[in-house]
């Protein structure tokens, strides 16, 4: 489907208002040079690896931000379109980009968890008591920090994240997308859930089964609901990255690494 509208200034402002601010975080993380950090620390230290994980997290969030901008573009297009078939096609684009945000947001949390493990040099043995089959590293690290270091700024940001209904909905949406049937949204066309098409009913003393042709199952959520929680989740994980990057910088400064307008430096 070709793009059919140009956004007005007010519409551009609306889209931008939904996107997380990453410029300042970029300025902080871009200065984390793993080579220089490695010189300043012991050879066996995992702290330099954290800088690479933070770069990975930032890259993933930049991609999520891009996808979210397109999701809102198509939301505006959807609201300007009255023809049902066109609206159905547009909805598929909203879902496509919203799904991308959900998947990348989950991925960014894993990158962030890896950075925290390297930053604080948390061993597998320390995380093991918080491990359960099938749960992500982000959940393990979050539980560990909440239990062992509840007053760290990073821990407080993580608690805000995992206590958010929007974050939990985004993770649930991603999990259904990966492990079960992707949740369906309104105006997607025919919806068929993974269940038997036969319906059991009681006819007197008899149990009989009926099969309805041409039926349509209910959708799980609306496009607005999907956009709402993935947008909030992206902002929350962005804030967690911001806090983590700031704490990482403080940690590096405690090892004698200096940050100036010219970049990063360390005295041998």
TrEMBL record:
<protein>
    <recommendedName>
        <fullName>Cthe-2314-like HEPN domain-containing protein</fullName>
    </recommendedName>
</protein>
